[in-house]
Amino acid sequence: VSNRVLAGHSLRLTLWRYVCSDAFSTKTWAPPGYFVTDEEDGLSKAPSLPWSAKRLVDIVEAILGSATTYTIDQKLQVASQLGLLPEEISSFAAFGTAFQGKLDGYMPTADMLGLSEFTKRLMERIQFKFEHPLLAIHAVTRSSCMGFELPSYECLETLGHALLDFLVVEMLQKKYEFFEEGELTIVKANCVSNKTLAALAVSLGLPEHMNHHSSSLSGAIAAYVDEVTVEREKELELGRPIPPQYWWSLLPPKALADIVESLLGAVLVEARFNLDVARAYFDRLY
Fold it and tell me: Quick one: a GO biological-process term for this protein (predicted)?
């Protein structure tokens, strides 16, 4: 989804030909690529205009954005027509089908493995039951955890980050229909910022469940937990009807925000890319 890739798709599909930069008027309308003149036939070929890569990217993103009222599968079909997805991904369920074998082959189920107290407490914290408990542990394991057989949470974090962006935008569009694009962007960035997610991680008690072998990170997390707890208690004492973002002045360790996103990604994988399950998890905790 880099600007270079999106601009390439925009050029390939010649989407720029369909852009109207002037107010629509029936008196001056002409087919794409032409404009009205005083010539005998009334039409003249439009001159080629310099299009920056950013403007080409904006066209693709605007088309995707116009599909906000569609179902998730319809949105994916639009993305597929734009060349952003492989042909075999025709629905959201197709992601789950593609991942099914890897999940069952790589992750033993709870019946096969049994649940440790650590995993039980983690699932209680996030109010979600994993049939593949190693997936939950995977989601809270950092690369600094030496000698651990599971990979770190980076891949799940990437998946969760993308899903979180989607769900937050979906929520904001339903809740604040009157928002302009700029306002929506600002609020969305606030909702998914590291500061907000780190405060959420503390409220869920996730710091104690992180697997890592970094003494500096342990110190940073402990200091942040103390600071954000104090700030939260101050706001509760004031009893404001709409308390401000008490966490906003603090600088949290990024790892706390990471595990919030990685756990969301893990829930989606566990649910075999059932978006309704992931959305219910999001609505419950966010």
Answer: siRNA processing
